[in-house]
Amino acid sequence: MAKYDENQIQVLEGLEAVRKRPGMYIGSISSRGLHHLVYEIVDNAVDEALAGYCTEINVEILPDNIISVQDNGRGIPVGKHPKMGISTLEVVFTVLHAGGKFGGGGYKVSGGLHGVGASVVNALSESVYVEACDGDGVYAASFARGKTIETTHKVRDGKKPGTKVIFKPDSQIFETTVFETDVLVQRLREMAFLNKGLKITLWDKRTEGTEQMVFHYEGGIKSFVEFMDKGKDPVNSEVVYFEGEDKDVQVEIALQYTTSYSENILSFVNNIPTGEGGTHVDGFKRGLTKSFNDYARRFNILKEKDDNLAGEDIREGLSAVVSVRVLEPQFEGQTKTKLGNSEVAGVVNSIMIDKMGQFLEENPSIAKAILDKTISAQRAREAARKARELARRKTPLESTTLPGKLADCQEKDASKCEIYIVEGDSAGGNAKQGRDRKFQAILPLWGKMLNVEKARADKIYNNEKLNPVIVALGTGIGADFNLEKLRYHKIILMADADVDGAHIRTLLLTFFFRHMRPLVENGNIYIAQPPLFKLFKKGMEDVYCYNEADLDVKLKELEEKGITREQLSMQRYKGLGEMDAEQLWDTTMNPETRILVRVELEDAVKADQIFSVLMGENVEPRREFIEQNAKYVTNLDI
Fold first, then answer.
1. Active-site residue set
2. How far is CA 320 from CA 277, 378, 515, in A?
3. Tens digit of pLDDT for each residue in 106-163?
4. All domains of the chain in start order, with CATH
5. Contact 189/215 with Cβ under 8 angstroms?
6. CA gap 116, 97 in Å, rounded
7. Whole-prediction pTM value?
8. Phi, psi (deg, nearest 5) at residue 85
């Protein structure tokens, strides 16, 4: 047995802990963690804006994937820190949990609560250069992998306050150091929406000829809701906006109703996205529901004998942004995705009841239009309930209630199970023969299914194409969704690699996004990648290629082995049905050899817009989208 004593206890000093376990501080070392470094520095600049001192933030992606972030805030203090004995700027970049957000009077509210942002960026970067101006001069310091290279020193005179941080992420730490412009655009645009009047620019200088993108919205979150509802038909053409403050909680709410059937509520605390909601969202929902029911009772739209309108009915077609600023926010979990402060619920609830009630009384025509839609939703929900009762599976073991076409697996542990939702009966038959029945279930679908963007839940439960999916997965949909009841932790969409297959995948993804969204957020949805080509020759093992680029690579590899293109035969698969059971297993279903693409939700607002444009009622936005993206089409059937 190995000796275990005091010599085995390791103490990590300074920023060594960050380099040893970067995932604890930025979530991951993947592309997501890489971009998080930018957010940390930008968040510090935004905190200056929240404090009322910063109006502009400039972000640049420089050649070699170096990032520059400059703001016109007060500038990081450069004087000697009374406790640490070194420049405060160096303290901020080299000491964990050092910052102006711990009650020292630097910031009233802020997004960064732990004081680790700048120091973590330093720890995980090959190089960091910082300039700070307090109005009396420009001072600089430089760092590398958490260590100070050049201490703080004056570099020139300067009277414009602000901070500039230039850093290069460490390739020893990250899986990739290539920044994606679209990912940064989404977050920077969001920050500009949430901070009315703040101007944020992004300039990708890695390629010549690119232009600076400017995000600047005087309308704040009102403009955010307008952006969310682009391509939808509004019920109230003017976005409703409320703000208020109580118990040191500042509240901003913007909302608009559209003719769609889905709700989309985005929530933030001190600019931090709270994807799981929390007490601020609970207060918003309660206040909204009470406002409409009180109005409907007061004006006899609801009679004494009528039940109250349910919150889910009132929120049908709602797009809203709920943004609060809290002195000491308490988040549930490490990810800061759910607010736990109990006092916030009451503040948001009372502001909603007061402001929304006033709005409804002052705008009776809009109130009537929304209530008509709500009452229609209530009737549809009741119809859906009856349909759901017929479809509901009583226990996971009662396999007799499962869809007739489902070939279930033997494994009962859902975490080890996967289901292939397969386009077409012939492909489904081959998949059933080729699968590993221990853990793989097969559900064949045939024909085009319902476009849920244009349908309510009652239509979905009664749809012969979608009902088998709902019953097989076991989670329910919409307000009844329960992730714990999921019967298969991998849901794999397997369709032909053609236009019809892409359409079916899109219809299914629309369904999952609108009615089973936690499956997307949780990473349970995958898309199978069947091969497009087969290269074969007598005496040679078949070679499968998954796209045109893969075909070129495989052909070159074979040429290097002395096999020319002329010696090879090539088959282009038109559909899954052309592969026999063994080929389907080898190429698309064998966990050892298959390629799966996991569906991830990077940008909920963008996803909502795309589904609305592509699958919604309005033709004009769809025509514009096609015209803008036609040049990118590669596999259009003619």
1. 423, 496, 498, 500
2. 13, 20, 18
3. 555 555 543 468 999 999 999 999 999 988 899 999 999 999 999 999 999 988 999 9
4. 16-216 (3.30.565.10), 221-387 (3.30.230.10), 392-530+598-632 (3.40.50.670)
5. yes
6. 5
7. 0.75
8. 80, 10
